[in-house]
Amino acid sequence: MMRMKLVAVTTAAVTLLAATGASHADKLEDAVKARQSYYQVVKFNAGPLFAMMKGSMDYDAETAQTHADNLKTLTALKNVAMWLKGSSKSDLPGKTRALAAIWEADSKIGEKGAAFRKAVAELAEAAGQGKDAMVEKARALGAACSACHKDYRAKEF
Questions:
Q1: Half-sphere exposure (Cβ direction) of 67: Cα atoms closer than 13 Å
Q2: DSSP letters along 10-31, please?
Q3: What is the residue-averaged pLDDT of the chain?
Q4: Using CA atoms, how far apart are residues 16 and 29, in angstroms rounded to an integer?
């Protein structure tokens, strides 16, 4: 009788731990999926702006302003829940390119994020005012993106 109770309690404990572990892993993977989706929307809106800047797409003030305003809206999101510690490439290989350096004490990720938000805000002010007004601000946005990728994003999954 005592052995059956011990088996039942052990089975229940193992099941609970397994469910908790799976839940935590799911939470991390959901955070990764959310931030990847977020950056797909950023890319979707930044792409036409960069294309206009490079001349591979005709400049259109209304289109430029719409995409820049969309980017500005995205920067207003409080997305800290997408950046859970334990959701880096080393924690979830094959799922993300985010480097663990993001979560280190000396990380400059906050500064890089602030530079991104500033570049987007300035681009949103200039995007509809002509290609010449937009080009410099689009380059600044590209530089802000590249700076973060250089330090905190692996080239491969």
A1: 22
A2: HHHHHHHHHHHHHHHHHHHHHH
A3: 89
A4: 20
